[in-house]
Amino acid sequence: MKVAVTVMLKNGVLDPQGEAVRSALLGLGFFDVKGVRQGKVIELDLADGTDLNEVDEMCKQLLVNSVIESYTVESI
Amino acid sequence: MKVAVTVMLKNGVLDPQGEAVRSALLGLGFFDVKGVRQGKVIELDLADGTDLNEVDEMCKQLLVNSVIESYTVESI
Fold it and tell me: What's the total number of domains in chain B?
């Protein structure tokens, strides 16, 4: 089974990567871009039958800094 | 309107970040993890009515290295 963990900075946390992308897009003439946030997606290939609670545990222990980041888990 | 662009390394392209995460998860005792791929997600806040073709153009010009990366676009 495969799951995708999407990790984004929480609202209000400064996102310099996203700002850099926004600035670059404006420089290329894409004036419709009002804001950009950049996060990461981690695709996990897990043994069949793995409990999704285990994925939550991975997020808490390693994948996510819960002070500044939020995450979602979905099966793919 | 908001769209999310998910950028992943193509299959077969070495993913050292993903390998590092896999190794760290194994070190923490998560033995159900068979593989990890890490990519990025870029959330774009666009003016209403922006054509999705414009997002494709952004990907081609800046967001995606099409030699080694593939991407998907979805409205959120």
Answer: 1
Is A35 in the B-facing interface, judged by CB distances under 8 Å? yes
Global pTM value: 0.91
The complex's ipTM works out to 0.90
Range(s) of the domain holding residue B53 = 2-75
Across the interface, do A41 and B46 touch by the CB < 8 Å criterion?
A: no
Task: Flag whether residue A28 sits within 8 Å of chain B, measured between CB atoms.
Answer: yes
Average pLDDT over residues A33-37: 96
Q: Cβ of A37 and B50 within 8 Å?
A: no
A42 to B8: CB separation less than 8 angstroms, yes or no:
no
What are the pLDDT digits (tens) for A40-52? Answer: 999 999 999 899 9
Tell me the CATH number at A43. Answer: 3.30.1280.10
H, E, C per residue of chain B? CEEEEEEEECCCCCCHHHHHHHHHHHHCCCCCEEEEEEEEEEEEEECCCCCHHHHHHHHHHHHCCCCCEEEEEEEC
